[in-house]
Amino acid sequence: MSERVVAAAEEGQVVELRRSGRRPRAVANGVRAAAILVALVVLAVFPLVFSNPAVTTIAFFTLVFMTSTTAWNGFAGYSGYIPLGHAVFFGTGAYTLAIVAQDLHMPGGYGVFWLVPLAGAAALVVAIPFGLIALRTRRHTFVVITIAIFFIFQLLSFNLGITQGSSGIQTPTPPWFGGAFNIPFYYVGAVILVLSIAVSWFIRRSRFGLQTLAIRDDEDRARGLGVQVGRVKLVGYVISAIPVGMVGALYAYFIGQIFPQSAFDPLFDITIALMAFLGGLGTVSGPLLGALVLEPLQQYFTVSDPSYYLIAYGALFLIVILALPRGVVPTVGAWIGNRRARRAAPSPAAAGEASGGAPGGTRYAATVRSGE
Amino acid sequence: MASSILKAVIDGVLTGGVYALMAAGLTLIFGVMDIINIAQGVLVVLAAYLSYVLSTQLGIDLFVGLLITVPTLFVVGVVVEWAFIRRLAGRERTAMSILVTYAVAIIIEGLLIRQFSTDYVQLNAWYVDRSFRLLGLYLPYIYVFGFALAAALLAALYMVLYRTRFGRSVRAAMQDRSAARLVGVNVERVATLTFGLGVAVTAAGGMVFGATNAFNPNSGYDLISRLLTIVILGGMGSIGGALGAAVFMLTLEDVVSVVWSPTWSTLVFFAALVIVLSVKPTGLFGRAAARAQ
Amino acid sequence: MGSRRVARMMGLLAAVGLLAAACSNASGGNSSSTSGSSSSSKQPIVIGASLSLSGDFSADGQAFQRGYQLWADYVNSHGGLLGRPVKLDIVSDASSPTQVVTNYQQLITVDHVNLLFGPFSTLLTVPSAKVAARYGYAMVEGAGGAPAVFQLKLPNVFDVSLPVADDLVPFAQWIASLPASQRPKTAAYPTSNDPFTEPQLPVAEKILQAAGVRTVYFKVFPAEVTDYTPIADQVASSGAQIVLLGSVDVPTVSAFIQAFAQQHYNPKAFIATAGPDQGASFVKAVGASNTEGVMVPNGWFPGYPNAQSQAMVQAYIQKWGGTPSDVNADVAEGYSVGQVLAQAVEATHSLDQSKIIAYLHSGVVLQSVQGAVQFDSLGENGKAAAFAFQWQHGNLVQVLPVGAPGSKAAEYPKPAWGG
Lengths: 372, 293, 419
Fold this sequence. Notes:
The structure holds three protein chains of three kinds. By secondary structure, chain A is mostly helical. In chain A, 76% of the residues lie in helices and 1% in strands. Chain B is an all-alpha fold. Chain B has one domain: ABC transporter involved in vitamin B12 uptake, BtuC, CATH 1.10.3470. Chain B is built from eleven helices and two strands; from the N terminus they run H-H-H-H-E-E-H-H-H-H-H-H-H. A two-stranded antiparallel sheet of chain B has the order 1-2. Chain C has a seven-stranded mixed beta sheet, sandwiched between helices. In chain C, strands 2-1-3 form a three-stranded parallel beta sheet, sandwiched between helices. In chain C, strands 4-5 form a two-stranded parallel ribbon. In chain C, a hairpin with a 2-residue loop joins strand 13 and strand 14 (395-400). The termini of chain C are far apart. Mean pLDDT of chain C is 83; it is low at 1-40. At the A-C interface, helix 3, helix 6, helix 10, helix 11 and helix 13 of A face helix 1, helix 3, helix 4 and helix 5 of C.
């Protein structure tokens, strides 16, 4: 597991460095390509090396959260809107798989995985009206309205006939036994994760991504500059919903049963937000790192000492948030960038500019807060 | 049926008062500091436990005990603000505040579990189970007392905000932080005191909550989403708005529960927020976007 | 920002990550020593279980843990199982299905436990039973009795307790059997939106309606309610003569009782599906004077006239203090799980899971502190006794079925609140 942490951290550094433009582009590209290759290989061989099902189970849940956090960050990190209702898409995906598999009397097996893209589509369909309503508001109001819509969905799943109330719905039982059981789930999860990262990376570098970042910096000015603010926000929001719906479906199939509290879990959003912030909101690698560290840690804390885990978990967060307010990846990136810059170019102004995040004088902070 | 509905309206108004008390602190913190205090729900529970200890260990009446719990929670609020919230800066301050206060919330929850376990307890006093008859209806003392307490405290809070020098600074900070600083307001100090005040008011809400519900350290989570809904609906920073929204929401919920079903009434609670915001994005009583970006 | 501080933080974070990885590896390493081949005689038999020691169900989880523990103490002081001591390996799941799946995987494949005990609640039983099934383990449990569990038709699930759907049957039959002059005319059925409560009320309603008891209120309330007053007030104003409350915990029952008392509404009979069986914590929440006459259905109670049960209650008091009425029914359910599994192990004289499963499905009648246990093809206990209990003068006493050994006369109509 530690190799992956290192790999992800390296990847993060490289991304930051590339942005800083301190290195010749070709070299940076080469290093980045190598890092990505290493990460992919680690991802691919992980369950073969660590084949114990207890480990692959945690690895699977970690993939679910890495995907969800990446997708969430693809909207929240780039647009500055903080939605706390993505559990709606997780639950929608989960129920889509459970209901369709039940209605079609699908036997357990590989065939059920074909419902995963369908679940993503269902999340998309739900995300459009959700986004249209919620994105009319901003900031705190947006946060709270997403929470409210989340509760509406949870209560609907309790009350509507189609979701079969509090008992929930069983998903098909796959005919895989022992340690072999986790493997198909792991690889389907890994594929969804890689696709989500690719989308996130692509958004970050696209014209669409730039428009989203412009909204984050100053929505009214972006509108003035001709960005179709409403459409950009909605598209970003909907894109972020799809992978979450897909892993929701995968989760339901893996667990074997879905019921309202586990499909629409209020802690889901706070968890993925914590992961994204811890790693670094708005970076590609930060949320991955956050999920990679936090999900196993959380499972470990829960088992080991139930009476202290809340206190330890909360204290750890406070320390990390206060020590690294921008998240691990940007802070470390800035630190390395600064050191390199200091060594290369003695001008402090250039160093601050280059790292994109000199202490206390972030590019974004300068533009946003100056208005107040 | 008519009397059931009348009863539901009265229940809604009375519980609305208690919710307003819990939401008032939240809206104040929202308005002045521009942060979301997720820990508010757990602080309600913390206050309820303090009242529990005072009444069971020392035999102090619940309402008299407020003389101790309110200042205690004020100190808790000041410490939390000084230690954690103040250190947040930069563009993600609002979002960071959610995480920091969540971390504070789970630490407090963990400490409460260590101290009190997860067994449910409830506050007790002679007026908790009793009621009196008025116009053919039984009105529980605790709800009536709670409403009176809410009205008194909210009025006091209103006086502080609109009749004192400190209140002027608070309102100035609410409208425009930098301008307030320019005219000599110590914005940091105002923020700390406001946070303390916001948490202190919660102590009273927590006591009434604990006397009307059995609670354990986890109980705060069911509350926070409802309180946030009320605050947004009432308009951030508006004490009167919080009272109006709380009474409106609780009455609506209770009436729906009676004429239709309790399961749907909770849904209506959240749906009301969505509908109102779709029509009027600033909330029921909100000013035109107090602080647009 | 000091770069040294950042470096320290990174170091800390990396250390934590490594630690977590190392720990999972370390426990993997240990496991080979505990599992081994079962031939060596004095090695303990390890029994794994995941319980909700924090989170929503923690009160029940902790009571279950005590039941498991008491059983293990008993076995170890009476020569062990197959001549070997038993050792419990209990981990916490915080009531989360994600965690419960991880935990049972860990117990089976890392800790290599010999036997499994079930988790707490229906919602966690299904995912964990599916994990156990993958490895051919028998999942004997005492708290997953809702229809949702048996619908799975898993071959390895055995619930030693009373199937929950039938919980209220003795109460409903008793009301229906009352002479017409005493029989209530109307009934109210408020219920929580929960797989434990929802199946129970329609069964009781059917029996009562056949006996001419009219339904004046039947509404479902959400699983998480922050204010029960309007719901309870409406039940009160319906004027129903008896109330059957579908509750999962103490706060629900105490909120209803408080509101009923405030409204001066006193039904002739009041039964709640869970809450009044929680001993001291129920009394603490509602106040001793309000408990009088409140009823609860269950498969067990501390005064249950069964020698093993009495011994267990004594052992409980010796270990944790208190009085018999402090002993939660969950304790007996946990204890029964151990007893049933132990009988299967002794009878088959092996730890072979397939033999154990075949034996439990064979229709044999087993004994537990909750009475006789016999499993049907779905793993439901067809022999489970169903009782109703009533709080009388500060004690929970058995009142139904009428005429059953140990049953006392029920207080009917129940006295006024605070009386």
